[in-house]
Amino acid sequence: MKKSGILNRHLAGALAELGHGDGVLVCDVGMPIPPGPRVVDLAFRAGVPSFAEVLDGLLDELAVEGATAAEEVREANPEAARLLAARLPDLTHVSHEQLKALTASARLVVRTGEARPYANVLLRCGVFF
Length: 129
Fold this sequence. Notes:
The chain is of the alpha/beta class.
């Protein structure tokens, strides 16, 4: 059994299959999930696991070359906005409607237990070398 890193076998396997440029949507429980991408639903109960916990775990595992969030996060969820700005300094903002449209091209959706609005981010995979 793995003793460190991501233990969820579905998430670990999905991450291993990602390539350069693939999109990973990390989302709250309210984000509509389009048909198509692989979905790993980690939500256990409201707030568990948190958006911050899942994002930090994924950033430990992935090379990220870009990220996009909804501009509405700044006003509707300042805590998530601060978290995203701290973890992803080159973060791009688009409208929530545009973010939902972009999720259709994601290869993987990771659903957290977060139950606060706009705790969503689309990560674009980079390469580690």
